[in-house]
Write a structure and sequence with these properties.
The protein is an all-alpha fold. Helices cover 76% and strands 0% of the residues. It has helices at residues 2-51, 57-68, 75-97, 107-121, 124-133, 141-153. The chain is rod-shaped. The N and C termini lie far apart (72 Å).
Length: 162
């Protein structure tokens, strides 16, 4: 009789352990999803702040002139314009880097960010800046390949335009 009670107690304990592991796995999955969404919200906030740079009309004017002809800028303007583009590359590059982890509800955002990357680096002045900046080696090799591919293609990807 005691052996049967011990066996039942062991069975109940094993079921408790299994239930605890299932609960922990469920909680971990929820936490991972929330962390992923939090990371994407942080990336969006960074992108919003980057785009807000143009709220300063003097900076917006510099970007417009730099996009038209980087070589016509003064050394100080080239520095500011170059840092603007670098910041954009790093922020938008983070979206590209995490493209495989895009939550399903943000799939269209990935296309919009890719198109933003094209808009950032397609103007003649941005291409002139890239020709100067690339040899300095301040970008990860994958970023360089992405930019080179985008500039070679020079077109939008297939899909809805946002």
């Amino acid at each position: 009789m005691l052996a049967q009670l011990a066996a039942i107690a062991d069975l109940i304990a094993a079921a408790g352990v299994i239930a605890s592991l299932l609960f922990l796995a469920f909680e971990l999955r929820i936490q991972n999803r929330e962390t992923g969404l939090s990371n994407w919200r942080h990336l969006l906030e960074s992108l919003t702040n980057f785009k807000a740079t143009t709220n300063d009309l003097a900076m917006a004017d510099l970007i417009v002139r730099g996009n038209a002809d980087y070589t016509s800028l003064t050394p100080a303007e080239k520095l500011s314009y170059g840092h603007y583009l670098e910041q954009g590359i790093h922020i938008i590059g983070n979206f590209e880097k995490h493209s495989g982890t895009v939550p399903s509800q943000m799939r269209d955002l990935q296309l919009a960010v890719h198109n933003l990357f094209l808009d950032l680096l397609s103007p003649p002045g941005a291409r002139q800046w890239w020709a100067e900046a690339k040899p300095r080696g301040r970008f990860m090799p994958n970023t360089v390949r992405t930019i080179e591919k985008m500039q070679e293609e020079g077109r939008r990807p297939l899909g809805p335009h946002l």
